[in-house]
């Protein structure tokens, strides 16, 4: 049996992808901890897309909701410890720093720049692995996010603004990093985030479509916050070269597509930058999603089961969806519907997307929606069902497969990251797929280090 150290060391990348290979006794203890004690360190071994039957947690959306022939498969992040898949890259970044000897428990305080879910993940992982933590985030995010971060034990360091002002959190993070006792898990720039999503999320997506349609992936949609989740697209393309990878942006803040800036309500995405870990070589399209569509869609799926049933959705399915999604998950679903229409996908084709989290951290967001709209009666929800899901068109989709468009994204990345100390030479190295493949291959090295450390 794996022996957990005083400072617990959890799973390897391969064990997060395939929890069935975890030591049987450890796996059983982890599943018990998931049910009985959220803060039991054995929950480190529950960082996976898989359930207790080793099946990917997913839902195939009813076509009566989406209105398209293609199968839209959504992986569900709400079943991760702490309620979001962001706990995966938080753990991966911390464990790599630990086995490298760069992060020492009892000496270093962990910094987590975030707009919410990654900060929650950092707070949660640091609780389990016994590190002090400071989460740096904008001061206008949902109350539920702040409450959960504090409940897990991290301190909050708030910067001015909202989702679209994450650059201020990076500047504050860099300031705090000057203290030699602080170590940053900077999700926007550190490649463990990329490695987790390429290996664990990407291969889980491939597995999720087995037995659905033609068992292939035609398209993957994800809104970049850190752009970590988009790395799943790299692995999807490695298996299905014809797959299209689509980055979704808020219509109100179209930074990648046009250099635009603006405030928006889709928490977790659209951060006014091209993040360092975004492999733009594999981004085929950029599509814009209106922020209020995402919030209204969440209200409908959470409170409008009756409306869904009246429009042909099976009652049990309608009720099962009430807690599965957050705002960014709805954004990703809307993006999947747009791309199904744009690519003219049929009943044998599969689009895969991600629900980062569940409804549990958005009650205050929905209350704000109700305040703004004053009335959300059944006839309003019926209208939103049509407007948000069924009438979604193919406007605001931009083809980024040409060299000219790639160069625009690389220039954006230069503008964003040279000021944080990265050299142009390093940024230029990212223009070659070999850079990304070599970074991905490091999972084998780290898996060996993790296994060696937890035996000590």
CATH topology of the largest domain: Rossmann fold
Task: Write down the domain tally.
Answer: 2
Biggest sheet details: 7 strands, mixed
Runs in which pLDDT lies below 50 for 5 or more consecutive residues are 1-7
Mean pLDDT: 93
Q: Report, as a whole number of angstroms, the end-to-end distance.
A: 13 Å
CATH architectural group of the largest domain: 3-Layer(aba) Sandwich
Question: What is the CATH level 1 assignment of the largest domain?
Answer: Alpha Beta
Helix content: 40-55%
Strand order in the sheet with the most strands: 1-2-10-7-8-9-11
From N to C, what is the helix and strand string?
HHEHEHEHEHEHEHEHEHEHHHHEHHEHHH
Shape by Cα distribution: globular
Strand content: 5-15%
Description:
- Helices cover 46% and strands 12% of the residues.
- By secondary structure, the chain is an alpha/beta fold.
- It folds into 2 domains: 58-81 and 198-399, Rossmann fold (3-Layer(aba) Sandwich); 87-186, Rossmann fold.
- The strands form 2 sheets. The chain has a 7-stranded mixed beta sheet with strand order 1-2-10-7-8-9-11. It has a 4-stranded parallel beta sheet with strand order 5-4-3-6, sandwiched between helices.
- Helix 5 runs parallel beside helix 6 (143-152).
- The longest helix has 23 residues, at 433-455.
């Amino acid at each position: 049996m794996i022996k957990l150290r005083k400072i617990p060391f959890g799973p390897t990348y391969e064990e997060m992808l395939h929890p069935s290979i975890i030591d049987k006794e450890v796996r059983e203890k982890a599943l018990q901890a998931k049910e009985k004690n959220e803060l039991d360190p054995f929950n480190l071994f529950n960082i996976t897309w898989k359930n207790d039957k080793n099946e990917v947690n997913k839902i195939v959306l009813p076509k009566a909701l989406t209105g398209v022939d293609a199968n839209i498969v959504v992986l569900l992040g709400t079943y991760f410890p702490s309620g979001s898949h962001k706990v995966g890259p938080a753990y991966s970044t911390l464990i790599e720093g630990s086995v490298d000897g760069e992060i020492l428990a009892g000496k270093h305080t962990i910094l987590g720049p975030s707009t919410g879910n990654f900060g929650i993940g950092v707070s949660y992982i640091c609780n389990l692995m016994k590190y002090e933590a400071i989460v740096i985030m904008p001061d206008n995010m949902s109350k539920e996010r702040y409450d959960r971060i504090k409940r897990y034990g991290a301190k909050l360091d708030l910067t001015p603004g909202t989702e679209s002002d994450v650059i201020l959190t990076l500047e504050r993070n860099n300031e705090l990093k000057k203290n030699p006792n602080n170590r940053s898990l900077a999700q926007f720039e550190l490649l463990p985030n990329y490695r987790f999503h390429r290996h664990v999320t990407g291969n889980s997506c491939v597995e999720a479509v087995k037995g659905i349609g033609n068992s292939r992936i035609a398209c993957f949609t994800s809104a970049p916050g850190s752009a970590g989740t988009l790395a799943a697209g790299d692995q999807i393309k490695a298996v299905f070269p014809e797959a299209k990878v689509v980055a979704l942006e808020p219509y109100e803040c179209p930074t990648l597509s046009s250099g635009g800036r603006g405030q928006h309500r889709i928490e977790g995405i659209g951060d006014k930058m091209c993040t360092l870990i975004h492999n733009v070589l594999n981004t085929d399209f950029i599509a814009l999603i209106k922020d209020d569509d995402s919030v209204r869609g969440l209200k409908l799926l959470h409170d409008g089961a009756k409306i869904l049933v009246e429009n042909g959705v099976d009652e049990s399915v309608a009720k099962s969806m009430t807690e599965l999604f957050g705002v960014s998950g709805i954004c990703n679903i809307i993006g999947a519907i747009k791309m199904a229409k744009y690519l003219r996908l049929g009943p044998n084709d599969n689009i895969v997307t991600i629900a980062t989290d569940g409804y549990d951290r958005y009650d205050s967001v929905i209350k704000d929606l109700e305040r703004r709209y004053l009335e959300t009666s059944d006839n309003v929800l019926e209208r939103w069902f049509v407007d948000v899901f069924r009438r979604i068109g193919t406007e605001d989709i931009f083809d980024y497969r040409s060299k000219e468009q790639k160069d625009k994204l690389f220039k954006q990345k230069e503008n964003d990251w040279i000021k944080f100390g990265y050299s142009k030479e390093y940024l230029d190295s990212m223009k070659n797929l070999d850079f990304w493949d070599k970074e991905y291959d490091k999972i084998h090295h780290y898996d060996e280090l993790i296994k060696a450390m937890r035996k000590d």
